[in-house]
What we know:
Elements: E1 8-10, H1 12-21, H2 24-30, E2 38-41, H3 42-47, H4 53-60, H5 64-75, E3 77-79, H6 84-99, H7 106-117, E4 122-125, H8 128-138, E5 151-153, H9 154-165, H10 167-177, H11 182-191, H12 195-212
Amino acid sequence: MNSSAIDVVVDADIVIKLSVLDLFSEALAAIGTSPSRCGMLRSMKFSAGVSRSSIRVRKAGQGAAADRLLSSLNILSTLSEPTTSEAHCAAALVLASQSLGLSVDGGEALLFAVSLSRNISFLTTGDKKAVRSLAEIEKHIPSVSEMRGRIIAFEHLTYASIRRFGFQQLSARLHTGAHCDKGLQNDLHHAQSDEAALTACLARRWQELNDAAPGFLAALPVP
């Protein structure tokens, strides 16, 4: 797939959670894109179970959620595999992370490398440890600064979805699928079905991540 047609690189964790929540299309629409303009590495599609139902069930659960995960994986564009240069960049990120006692695994490092190399506007990721590591890694690998403002966290996606479509429309799906994310589960418990309280909880958790990696997250939609 031509990367110039791609707005967003998506990691497996995000696809799985949005599929469990049945918010895949809504979340992408809420950030101004569509599945055809979102790309996923082929290797990550396989790790999420695109070709094996047993993996999908393990990742998303039985029944409709696993079916939605397959649909999501199939509709996302497939990115060409990392180039040698991108693989070297990813390896450098992992090595820097390890030398600093931080946590960026090989898969996440590849997503960063591909996003940087192909100048794809945004990367959605559920790996908070990797995001928190970027500020320190940037001191050793200056090109990491190019990821500033380009990372979309899970909290951003749920916040934007609620802002665009309204809590009442999404409430049943959020409550049914909240087990996929402990933070969301806690937010729903504390908010007690109050939309303003829920979005405030999501915004607070987004801010906590932003404080740990200043400037790397894409800004939340203006209320």
